[in-house]
Write a structure and sequence with these properties.
The complex is a heterotrimer of chains A (436), B (296) and C (318). With 296 residues, chain B is mainly α. Helix content of chain B is 71%, strand content 0%. Chain B has helices at 17-47, 65-71, 74-105, 112-119, 121-124, 127-138, 144-148, 163-187, 192-200, 205-233, 237-242, 251-260, 265-295. Chain C has two domains: 67-104, no CATH class; 109-309, MetI-like fold, CATH 1.10.3720.10. Chain C has 14 helices and four strands. In chain C, β3 and β4 form a beta hairpin. The chains are: A alpha/beta (436), B mainly alpha (296), C mainly alpha (318). Chains in contact: A-B, A-C, B-C. At the A-C interface, α1, α2, β2, α3 and α13 of A face β1 and α7 of C.
Amino acid sequence: MLKKSLLGMLAGASVALVSGAAMAADELTIFWAEWDPANYLQELVNEYTAQTGVKVTVQTTPWPDFQTKAFTEFNAHGDAYDMVVGDSQWLGAGSTQGHYVELTDFFKQHKLNDVMAPATIKYYAEYPGGSGKYWAIPLEGDAIGWAYRKDWFEDPKEKEAFKAKYGYDLAVPTTYAQLRDIAEFFYRPDQKRYGIAIYTDNSYDAMAMGVESAIFSYGGELGDYATYQVEGITNSKQAADGLAMYKELYKYTPPGWGKTFFVEDNQAITGGLAAMSMNFFAFFPPLVNKATNPNAEGTGFFANPAGPGGQRFAALGGQGISVVSYSKNQEASMKFLEWFIKDETQKKWAALGGYTCSQAVLKSAEFQNATPYNKAFYDTMFMVKDFWATPEYAEVLDQLNQNIYPFVVGGKGTAQEALDATAKDWTATFTKYGRY
Amino acid sequence: MTSLDPRSRAATRGWSDLTIRNLFVIPTLLFLIVFNIFPLIYSLGYSFTDYAANRSVPWSFIGLKNYRDLLSDEHIWSNFVITAKYVIVSVSGQMVVGFGLALLLNRSFPLKGLVTTLLLLPMMLSAAVVGLFWQLLYSPSWGPINYLFGLGDFAWLSDPDAALYAVAITDIWMWSPFVMLLSLAGLSAVPKHLYEAAAIDRAGAWYTFTRITLPLVAPLLLIALIFRTMEAFKTFDIAYTMTTQPTAELIAIRLYKQAFQQWDTGKSCALAYIVLIMVLAITNIYVKYLNRVKER
Amino acid sequence: MAAVRSVRKAVLNRLAIAGALVAMLVFLGPIYWIASTAFKPKELAVTVPPTLIFTPEITPMIRLFTKRVQIQGETDPAAYAAAPWWEKRIYDGGERVLKVGDAVQLSQYPNRFENSLIVAIISTVLAVSMGTVTAYGFSRFRIAGEADLLFFILSTRMLPPVVVAIPMFLMYRVVGLNDSHIGLIILYVAFNLSFSVWLMKGFMDEIPKEYEEAALVDGYTRMQSFFKIVLPEAATGIAATAVFCFITAWNEYAFALIMTNRRAQTAPPFIPSQIGSGLPDWTTIAAGTFLFLLPVAIFTFALRKHLLRGVTFGAIRK
């Protein structure tokens, strides 16, 4: 009895193997993280299927596992995915380790530098910086932005009390100093109301993005991306001031705010917990939806504020779509990309909810008025800066997390010490990889 | 250990004992060798190199360097200490609660089958889901725990000191049913006549417990202890989903980061072997004790 | 004398019942909370204090099985009016169902659930049968290096899956077992065998060899005595082993995540991923969890008599 079922299983398995191999012919697989934009992309590509008969599936996996699964497949030279919508930080690893197909000719042929916004080309497509070599097509633009409780801000009683305490009018903050004042003003634990919600999750890049936005606006840098010089840059005084401000803001967050990412920060608004909340623009749609956000009417948006020196930047998010070099369907993938960059496709993409990077669509009044946050998004996309895109970025990111998390959430040490330790770790890492 | 004489009369009819013995044991051993030895040797090999799975530069043998680096890294040692604390708290909690529950349930009452099945539910959930929902339970803003115990704003998972114990409590909640089931199976195997004899001899409850109950349940209890200890050392899902506090970074989390975020394949294999050796040593002690108990 | 003892017994009984009730509350409270959340409307999902009484609805289940996106802007009234009752519920939640033409796109849940069933059932059957016969072999026969072999079997479970995953992933890719049911089944059997052998051996050792000796004297062959005498006696052990192996295979996350993609991916990595659209949808996650819990719970409940039977010492005294 055991033998028979064993034989049966072996037979079934061989059938599965054979039929699996035959499936590859006119099917494309795009790999992305599990979130709404992936669903919008699936809707978009269904149109391509209707037009050409080529079935395109957007395969997804939750965000925390996205990097793991993608790179496990790459490192094994697997062909499970034909295209991948990778994070901008993956460009270095993807290009130098041979995972991505070089798209420079494609760019020249289709003049993509004129089609897509310059900031998006620079960060989502080009590696190394300034080399003119392109590895991905900007698909989803994203950056750090802020949501806030318009209704609280416009309450006359609040306006009065604020003016009395701080000496200027309560309005959308344009500098970090104002951001801090407003956070302090609305921090009322006895009423279960808090001033601000920021990112603190250090399992991937959440907290790093938040901290980075502050550091950049304060005139600091994470390092020289061209020479890998970090000593004196990563731990400059401006960077330390920016980091110290981020820690200051943590004081005004709701309790238990030690592992937060986009979910918690959105809940801070929908649950009426905080006056202001930081989040990637990609996650703002639920906030304007009355069914998911009871406070939707009273929610407004603004771009990342400026620092004391007047500089204004925001951390870049977003992804570009690349062709996997181990894929067996590279030609079909290129054909798909040709369809993707067409104007009508980009327009449809934006209409469905994707954050297109096409200049034409971004500048259109249609786009900017489509949602309450699109204008802030448009403004932000011209002042974005990114994290390291070097192949060892994951190690670099982990070291940053290890050093600044105890400071921001645990209150240990000073900003300068945290950044000094980071600079030291990064120098060691870059030395290990022979960058100097 | 009971072994039967291969030359007993029945062995001359049907399959011989030797055939049966080989048929029963060898396939399993072969299967385990193929599917466990291969990755073990692979990993051992890599642990002596500086191989990184994401780079195409040729790797080289570096002997014991990975091991030396790891054993002198204070971060790693703190991970070990944290893991040790966690294993001790979690496993002893599970054993006490599980065995206690079994003692409670070891009597006949209506719906015993239903109640037992219901109490097994916590361990039937996937660890990631448990971590997710307990994160919500512990939340000071939305969770019932603070509300029910009047703890106000105490942030279990954000507090560096409490985070590890919060995870341990969840683990105890999840796995006590495992210990309970094994203990119940053992307890119900204790022959009633032994208890009756003890009652006739006017033995006290404590005497009955330590001289009759415990020794007979000991083998199953020790099996539970061995397996729960091994699993506790490998804990990953629950802790990773609930908190990212450095004070609650278990060794399995550190392994994951090294292997899948830094792609330091060589080093992570070395670390895995260090963990393996530790678990081997501890389990060895348990197993020796188990064998002694069984011989009594 | 007897009266005092029976009073004490009564008090202890009461305490036991009280203890059992407390245990039920502690262990089942969170479960009830998860299960009930699966039927709540979104607003009641995370309330403080937790909502115990509510009117149940099956909208979370509908969400669990369909692919949906947030609505951009307002719902088209014509589309809303033409939609069937379940689709209206989705619209009410601020989302719309993804469709290819007119066909509703199902979420990956049903497919993953099916994969989980296939992989868990087959691997459990294999692990339990192989474990039982091997345990019998170790328990009844003299085997050279037995203690070492048993320890080797135990050690196969000691390595964290994270590290075994990379070599196995590469090996599977070479052999073509990647993203296949067979591949995962083999892994789970290898993983569960150690526990299966050890637990079954624990139970087998408790069965007195006198039973078999008596059977052999009566003219049974060894195999016959194994199937007719030993196995029934070991039923509790088999039930317990089957339950644990099934649970382990059913809820396994790490290998399922790394080793499988579209074809054979099981449910555990999928259920928590409902957090993706910017806000956690606890009701849908709870629905997924609840449904996923049912097979395991039913399986265990079906075996409950065996689980509680215990191994009995027979009338044969030494």
